[in-house]
Specification:
- The chain is α/β, with parallel strands linked by helices.
- The protein has 2 domains: about 50 residues, Signal recognition particle alu RNA binding heterodimer, srp9/1; about 70 residues, 2,3-Dihydroxybiphenyl 1,2-Dioxygenase, domain 1, CATH 3.10.180.
- Strands 1-4-3-2 form a 4-stranded mixed sheet, with helices on one face. Strands 5-8-7-6 form a 4-stranded mixed sheet, with helices on one face.
- The longest helix has 11 residues.
Length: about 120
């Protein structure tokens, strides 16, 4: 099981404020570092003073439409509305929606909809 992932950020205060707007709880912080709770996985934000490319973080949400709609109210840039990406043989659907962090890097919401679910 993945316990922690690191993401380099240009400005730690700005990144902490961004993730707080997303509703991600901060566990603790030290100079240049902040640790956030992404379910059982911690996200460590490490300030570098420089913008870096980053892989997409996929955040699991129970209601992707509601989560996506909430981004606009928080002033967060969206790039791709919720859409089905795959249907499993049992009928479970995988959905994704994309948005950007405070440095213009991609993030995504991911949700599973059970067969016959909404």
């Amino acid at each position: 099981m993945l316990s922690q992932i690191s993401r380099r950020v240009e400005d730690l205060a700005r990144a902490r404020a961004f993730y707080a707007r997303l509703g991600v709880a901060e566990l603790y912080a030290f100079p240049g570092l902040a640790f956030l709770a992404l379910g059982p996985t911690r996200l460590m934000l490490r300030e570098t003073g420089t913008r870096h490319e980053a892989d997409i973080l996929y955040l699991s949400v129970p209601d992707i439409a509601a989560a996506y709609a909430g981004l606009a109210a928080k002033g967060i840039a969206t790039t791709q509305a919720p859409h089905r990406i795959h249907t499993h043989p049992d009928g479970t659907e995988e959905w994704m929606a994309f948005f950007q962090d405070d440095e213009g890097r991609d993030l995504a919401f991911h949700a599973l909809k059970p067969p016959g679910g909404t």
